[in-house]
């Protein structure tokens, strides 16, 4: 519970799940240190020397917490400042629809600028959906469908149920969600 100063270059707002709401942008509270560079859809860990040059305050903070960081599984003296399970790191800075996974109803919002990072996995935290389109109308349409009562009904019938009326709005529950033909071309798509 101490206040520290870190460089913004490798810090990002972190969502843990509960602060994810329907349609709205979450308030920024927690942050995550992201010691990676992303290029051509590939995340590469920054060396300690690279970090020292650009983010000395962050390196000092990490060094102070090195004993704790070394207790994580799959971490060695060689890479103690990096993530032990670096999966799908390249998409965090992209536009994506983020969901609260464990919820009574769909809670999805559009991270248009690719600002938010999140904890997630399985049936807790957050999850992301990246569309194969840059069409603003498609994002609005998909966001409306995901936040609808129809999606809630679907997930409650196929997804895992938890105490308190909660359901997992994760990949397994949403992968079979029947969607209408989402082609937005022609007269019907004009606003």
Outline the structure in words:
The protein is α+β, with helices and mostly antiparallel strands and 191 residues long. It contains six helices and twelve strands. The protein has helices at 48-54, 56-64, 66-70, 136-146, 149-158, 171-174; strands spanning 11-15, 30-33, 36-39, 42-45, 96-100, 102-103, 108-111, 117-118, 120-121, 124-129, 161-162, 166-168. It has a four-stranded antiparallel beta sheet with strand order 7-5-10-9, with helices on one face. The chain has a three-stranded mixed beta sheet with strand order 2-1-8, with no helix packed on it. A hairpin with a 3-residue loop joins strand 11 (161-162) and strand 12 (166-168). The longest helix is centred in the last third of the chain and has 11 residues, at 136-146. The protein is elongated, with a radius of gyration of 19 Å. Mean pLDDT is 89; it is low at 187-191.
Name some characteristics of this structure.
disordered C terminus; 191 residues; four-stranded antiparallel β-sheet; 24% helix; single chain; 6 helices; three-stranded mixed β-sheet; alpha+beta
């Amino acid at each position: 519970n101490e206040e520290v100063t870190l460089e913004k270059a490798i810090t990002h707002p972190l969502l843990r799940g509960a602060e994810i709401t329907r349609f709205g942008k979450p308030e920024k509270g927690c942050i995550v240190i992201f010691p990676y560079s992303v290029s051509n859809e590939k995340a590469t860990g920054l060396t300690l020397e690279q970090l020292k040059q650009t983010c000395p305050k962050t390196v000092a903070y990490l060094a102070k917490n090195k004993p704790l960081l070394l207790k994580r599984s799959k971490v060695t003296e060689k890479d103690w400042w990096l993530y032990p399970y670096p999966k799908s790191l390249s998409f965090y800075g992209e536009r994506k629809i983020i969901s609260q996974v464990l919820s009574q109803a769909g809670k999805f919002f559009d991270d248009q600028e690719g600002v938010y990072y999140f904890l997630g996995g399985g049936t807790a935290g957050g999850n992301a959906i990246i569309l194969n389109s840059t069409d603003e109308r498609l994002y609005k349409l998909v966001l409306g469908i995901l936040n609808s009562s129809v999606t809630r009904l679907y997930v409650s019938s196929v997804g895992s149920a938890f105490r308190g009326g909660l359901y997992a709005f994760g990949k397994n529950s949403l992968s079979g969600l029947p969607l209408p033909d989402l082609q937005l071309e022609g007269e019907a798509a004009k606003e």
